[in-house]
Amino acid sequence: MDQLVSEARRLxxxxxxxxxxxxxxxxxxxLLAWNEKFNLSAIRDAEGIRTKHFLDxxxxxxxxxxxxxxxxxxxxxxxxxxxxxxxxxxPSMRLTLVESVGKKxxxxxxxxxxxxxxxxxxxxxxxxxxxxxPGHREGYDWAVARAVANLPVLVEYLLPLVQVGGAMLAQKGxxxxxxxxxxxxALKILGGSIRQLIPVILPGVADERFLVVVDKVAATPAQYPxxxxxxxxxxx
Length: 236
What we know:
This protein is α/β, with parallel strands linked by helices. The protein has a single domain (2-233), classed as 3-Layer(aba) Sandwich (Rossmann fold). 42% of the residues lie in helices and 21% in strands. It has eleven helices and seven strands. Strands 3-2-1-4-5-7-6 form a seven-stranded mixed β-sheet, with helices on both faces. Strand 1 (71-75), helix 5 (83-89) and strand 2 (94-98) form a beta-alpha-beta unit. Helix 2 (18-38) crosses helix 3 (46-58), helix 2 runs antiparallel to helix 6 and helix 8 (151-158) runs parallel beside helix 10. It is globular.
């Protein structure tokens, strides 16, 4: 864990407190235990969790710098990444986790309870459904997703949830720049505008990584998101 502390400080300027360290250690322990029964994550060792889950989640800070989200929604959160990791960093942030797979959503609920995290809602549903729910539609200053879908599809999941003046963040691998180019039409339709692509380097990870940051500059038309499954089958 000492290495995680020093890398978080070196890469992202994060100074982890004792309480945050205890929370991350509990998270790691429970993820390893649940993973043996439920296959929540392909990463099954402590070192991998610290680098490819915790540090990767921390990298979101590069998008908002000193202005963290007040209300964040994490789509397709899986075992809680990046949402729960970010909630540990920002205890006052209001967080919604959306995960359609029941066993993963249940793990998130278990963690929220175990870590006594306040102002966290876990929804077992698809992104398209949540994007039409009053109280969630255009209700967030940031929406985030990691490894969920290609960007032309992902913007239809995320942008309907973001208020005008807010932003969405997609954590992407080496295909990030090409996907961004392909998403231009969808962004125009849904009220988004590319702000920047931020390269991310994680220790010991050779693959290129990018944060794709999109500003919400206009309201999303009422007909989006389309019905569940349609965005993936027929990307804008």
